[in-house]
Amino acid sequence: MSKTIRMIINGKKEVFHIGHDDGYGIIPDEETLCETLRERLNLTGTKLACGQGACGCCTVLMNDVAVPSCQILTAACDGADVVTIEGLHDPKTGELDPLQQAFIDKYAFQCGYCTPGIIMALKGLFINNPHPSREEIGEALSGNMCRCISQYHVFNAAELYMKQNA
């Protein structure tokens, strides 16, 4: 008998069964949340880079906390509410989340590979601390690596978001 995992992912109920059969919705117990999101649900905004939780590219929100999805087994996510970068937009209007728009307005991305993880790390911070200091923003971003952008653009986007959502 396989274990059943129920989650809410981007507002949608998802059910998986843990096992090693090849059936639909059956995932191995060693599959990470990142793999499940990317390979099974085609939520490719969650990037897999280092696979060790050090770069932040795979960051998602789990129960409103930013977490590295490459370090969490899907089997351990029963009952979790997961939000990926694809789940931030307004489902009724299709508009981007204000934090995503702030990144566009402040040119806070270049190649974009790490941007979803950075946005999700900041979103987790703002959910739990709507008015963080610049130091707290830096601490929230300490697990995210970007090789092609000056971090001040990201700080500018975070500050714009705070100003517009005060």
Low-confidence stretches: none
CATH class of the largest domain: Alpha Beta
Shape call:
elongated
> How helical, in percent, are the residues?
25-40%
Rg, rounded, reads 16 Å
CATH architecture tag of the largest domain: Roll
Keywords: 2Fe-2S, Iron, Iron-sulfur, Metal-binding
Protein name: (2Fe-2S)-binding protein
Organism: Clostridium aromativorans
Pfam families: Fer2 (PF00111), Fer2_2 (PF01799)
List the main descriptive attributes of the protein structure presented here.
DNA polymerase, domain 1, Ubiquitin-like (UB roll), 166 residues, alpha/beta, 31% helix, elongated
What does this structure look like?
Helix content is 31%, strand content 16%. With 166 residues, the protein is an alpha/beta fold. It has two domains: 83 residues, Beta-grasp domain (Ubiquitin-like (UB roll), Roll), CATH 3.10.20; 67 residues, DNA polymerase, domain 1 (Orthogonal Bundle), CATH 1.10.150.120. It starts with a strand and ends with a helix. The model has no long low-confidence stretch (mean pLDDT 93).
Question: Quick recap of the structure?
Answer:
This protein is α/β, with parallel strands linked by helices and 166 residues long.
How do the strands and helices of this protein lay out in sequence?
Blueprint: E1 3-9, E2 12-18, E3 26-27, H1 33-40, E4 59-62, E5 65-68, E6 81-83, H2 98-105, H3 115-128, H4 134-140, H5 151-164
Parallel strand pairs: 1-6, 2-3
Antiparallel strand pairs: 1-2, 4-5, 4-6
Helix pairs in contact: 2-5
